[in-house]
Amino acid sequence: MNLTFRQLKVFEAVARHLNYTNAAKELHLSQPAVSMQVKQLEEQVSTPLIEKLGKKLYLTEVGLEIQDYACNTLQQLVDLEETIAQMKSMKRGHLKMAVASTANHFVIRLLASFAKVYPRISISLDVTNRSSLLELLEKNECDLVIMGSPPEGHNLQSAPFLENPLVVVSNPHHYLADKKHVSLQELEKEDFVVREQGSGTRSAAKRFFTEHNLKFKTKMNMSNNRAIKHAAEEGLGLAIVSVHTLEIELKAKTLKILNVEGFPIFRNWYVVQREGKRLSPIAKVFNEYILQESDNMMQNFDIPHF
Ligand code: PGA
Hints:
By secondary structure, this protein is an alpha/beta fold. Helix content is 44%, strand content 23%. The protein contains eleven helices and eleven strands.
C-alpha cells in the first residue's frame, strides 16, 4: 500500500462534508481533482470507501476506519507544526547538558538564570567526570558539554569562556596554612587526597607534578569534590581543587588556599559540542548565553600568588 498524505487529506474533507463540491471548495481544488484523489485512495486499499445511495453519499465500513485514521494523522500534523513553531520561538524545548563535576558549582546557577528567561523549557543535566563526558559526546547523547580543555582529534568544536584556577587547599590548622610561601620541595612531602581516574582536575594536578619532577603522594582517591574537600577539612591530606568548588568552605573558613610555588594552575572552562552537530534552537541560545554571561560567573576569590 502506498497511501499519500494528500489522498488522506482530500478523503478526510470529502468524508466530513459527504459532498465532493464542498470538499473541493474548502481545499481550493476542482471537483474532478478531488474525485481523482479519492479514486486513487480506493485503488490503493482495493476497496470502495464511499457509496452513493440515491443522491446521498455514505462512508463504507473501511471508509469510516480510514476517516478515523485520517483525522488523527491530520491533527498530529497540526500539533507538530505548533510544536516546531514553539521550539523555534523558544517557548518550549529540551536542553540536554552534561558538565564536569567541578563545573557543576557554577553551571547550576547559570541554568537557573537561563530557566527564568525561558520558563517553559525543560533541562536535563548529567554531572560526571571528564572521561565520561567525552563518551557522551562520542555517542551524541547531549547537546552541549562544559569541561576542561577538550582533547585534540575527537572531532569536537569548543570555545573557552571562563578561567578555572586550581589551587592547593588544607585544613586551616595545617602547619603549611600560615606560611607565606610554600615551596615545591615542601609540597612534595605532603600526602594528597585526589579525585578518581578520569577526572580532569586529577590529570592536571598529576601533570603539574610530573612536569616539575616531583613525587605526587596520592593517599586517597575520592569520586567527588565534596568528599575531597571534606577529607582535607578533616586533615586527611592536602587537596588540589578548582576555586569554583570552594565558595562555601572559604566563607566558612574551613579550608585555606595555600600559597604554593607554581600555583594556581591556570586552566579554562570550555563549552563543547560535536563537530557538525545541529543544535536545537534552545541549545543554540544557551550556548550564546554561556559565552555572554562568562564575565558574571567568576566570583572574587582571594587567590594567593606565589
Ligand atoms: P573534573 O572536571 O575534574 O570534574 O573531571 C574538570 C575538567 O574537565 O577538567
